[in-house]
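Dear colleagues,

For the upcoming journal club I promised to circulate an example of a predicted protein-ligand complex. I picked one with 2-acetamido-2-deoxy-beta-D-glucopyranose because it came up in last month's discussion. The inputs are reproduced below in full, followed by the predicted structure.
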Amino acid sequence: MSAAVCVLILSALWGHTVVSGDLSRPTKVRLTSHDMNLVLSWDLPAEPAGLLYTTEYRSSVINYRAGCVNISTLECDFTRHSIPQTIYQFGKYTARVRAHSGTETSAWVESNNVAMDKETNISSPIISLLSNGAAIEVIIQDPVFRISSLRQVYSSATYNITYWQDSQKQKTRSISNIQQSRVVLSDLEPWTKYCVKVQISTGRISNNLSQPSADVCESTTIDKEVPWVAAVVTFITMAIAVALVVVAVVYRKRISHLLCPKDSLPQHFKEDLMVRPNSSMYIAMCNSHPSEEIFHQVSIIPDSSIIEAERPLEAEPPHTTQT
Ligand SMILES: *[C@@H]1O[C@H](CO)[C@@H](O)[C@H](O)[C@H]1NC(C)=O
Ligand SMILES: *[C@@H]1O[C@H](CO)[C@@H](O)[C@H](O)[C@H]1NC(C)=O
Ligand SMILES: *[C@@H]1O[C@H](CO)[C@@H](O)[C@H](O)[C@H]1NC(C)=O
Ligand SMILES: *[C@@H]1O[C@H](CO)[C@@H](O)[C@H](O)[C@H]1NC(C)=O
């Protein structure tokens, strides 16, 4: 009786360590689950380092089974170390850990419960974008689960796709309840950069959203019809270019003669022609209109007396001269 009281008093004085065993126990023991793994982790006990740890787990229907044995790390992933088939996606699990060093062991420390499908934290989907004219195709990859797969656990999981113009982050649009993993966004402006974010909704009552994906951005180009028009325009341009080349080859002599005549003016001539005289006379000539020339009509009538006078004297006729 007195011994029991003594143990109780010691226990009250020294905390758990005395009653639990020779070694101090691991602290902050927690069981977590991300993407359907099951990981027990803990903090170092107060005692010095060099300890080993052993873990076990149980479900609501089976008793404790061995997990990691004699490990020196501070966590144990039961979905990696134990027999894989013994953890089920719809199971509810508890785990425990104890420290040991040589022959000394600590007491077990039990963790919280985790109901795998209800509580696992789902990481973000991975998205990639394919620009196709003025539309963008969103391709969604589910996070990889350690056991089972997203669709097997959450058969009614849906995607919530949020998208916005890169320049207008506050004006987002969303489409939700999407079940297919490839979705075409077609109500987009051409030549515009859009960003997309996707979040998975499990359709469950609690812990029902995945982490949102990273924002992924892609630019639209131009309407789908236009590549066809562009092809025609390209074809016509090519045809004209080919025709021009053919003409140039056929008439190359004439063209070269026309563009580069063989005879050219001597250099000093060219320079003289290029120089614009700046004498006042030249400028006056340029600015003045050609003056009207005034003239009178003049008729020349031959004078017979002069003609007579110019005749040789010796042949003078007898008639009188007129003036
Ligand atoms: C899920 O994540 C939250 C926040 O990080 C954490 O508090 C919670 O323990 C996690 N649940 C499980 C089961 O790991
Ligand atoms: C774990 O270590 C203890 C001693 O600390 C030893 O007795 C036991 O055999 C070891 N178990 C395994 C599986 O190595
Ligand atoms: C989808 O995600 C957006 C952005 O996170 C949010 O505003 C919107 O309410 C969500 N829609 C649904 C139906 O959950
Ligand atoms: C998602 O979970 C929250 C609580 O975490 C809950 O209030 C909400 O109703 C759930 N949504 C659905 C669709 O179940």
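Two points we might discuss: The chain is about 25% helix and 25% strand. The first helix runs from residue 2 to 14.

See you all on Thursday,
B. R.
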